[in-house]
Amino acid sequence: MSDFHSLKIAAIDSLTPNAVALTFEIPENLKDSFEFTAGQYITIKHEINGKELRRAYSISSAPSSGKLTVGIKKMPEGTFSVYANESIKPGDVFEVMPPEGRFVFDSHSQSKNIAAFAAGSGITPIMSIAQTVLESHPENIFVLVFGNQSPEETMYLEALQELQKQYTNRFFIQNVYSRSQAEDALFGRIETSTVNFVTKNKFKETSFDAFYLCGPEEMITTVSDTLKNNGIAEEKILFELFTSSDTEDTLAEELEGKTKVEVIVDDETFSITMDKKELVLDAVLKEDINAPYSCQGGVCSSCIARITEGKAEMVKNQILTDGEVAEGLILTCQAHPLTPTLKVDYDDV
């Protein structure tokens, strides 16, 4: 489940002065492994300056395209994002984990009206979802509210304009620019008034079946809270964080003692002893156990495992539902053991 495969860069396309799209070449023998659902992400592993880095990037291409493309925006303090924008060349080889993730659109359902709120690089999974929504049923409608600094810094601007031309009566974009005035665009950031303008004014006659939110935590919280205050059921609101606010680990301060942990990953069983103040994933990786992980910040879903014996508690959880937690699923990058023994199964998720 945590296997990486060597993939070659087939193409690099500039999206903005600070963002690129990387397209990977998928060998015939790996086509099945790299099939994906709109909205999923891949984890890329690469060594830079002697240090192994893992980064999760959402797939922006539609499953129907036959391509595997991710968009990467250069972050001021970023290591891999700077490397991707400045140093990667066609033909370079990277270790890539097969697609995963829960922020997805089911294209087999009946006609749907979908609204999405994205900011900056949060557009990457939305690109794949939007294309899939529009092509999967001739009556599907997709409304995108997209926040950026300016048109010049808008990732996939040309591709979005092409989609508008292709689906004139079914694909609608409301741009929001924080540092630029533009025709038909709102000025500022995506906030409560933006959500109300789109859902209660501009598209008040449209009944939306689902809302997809992707971007910084503050934006997602604002949009989600506004939608719920307007009577939208929580299960209709799907989100994926690109960045998450730091949460103080007060739980670690309260815990004492050690836990014997049995870890199952890739059909192998490992036994370790860890301090309860440690996080499960940290302790597992310290023992060179090849557990799946990517962000290590509770933003992606790579490190999910199931507790089959004992108890653990998460510092924060913005991914798993209450039902999934009740079934024993945890984000191991956020979990402290509470009991003297703990059994964690990465395969049973």
Automatic annotation (TrEMBL):
FAD-binding FR-type domain mapped to chain residues: 2-106
Lineage top rank: taxon: Bacteria
GO MF terms, alphabetically ordered: 2 iron, 2 sulfur cluster binding; flavin adenine dinucleotide binding; metal ion binding; oxidoreductase activity
2Fe-2S ferredoxin-type domain mapped to chain residues: 259-349
Keywords assigned: 2Fe-2S, FAD, Flavoprotein, Iron, Iron-sulfur, Metal-binding, Oxidoreductase
Cofactor: FAD
Protein name (record): Flavodoxin reductase
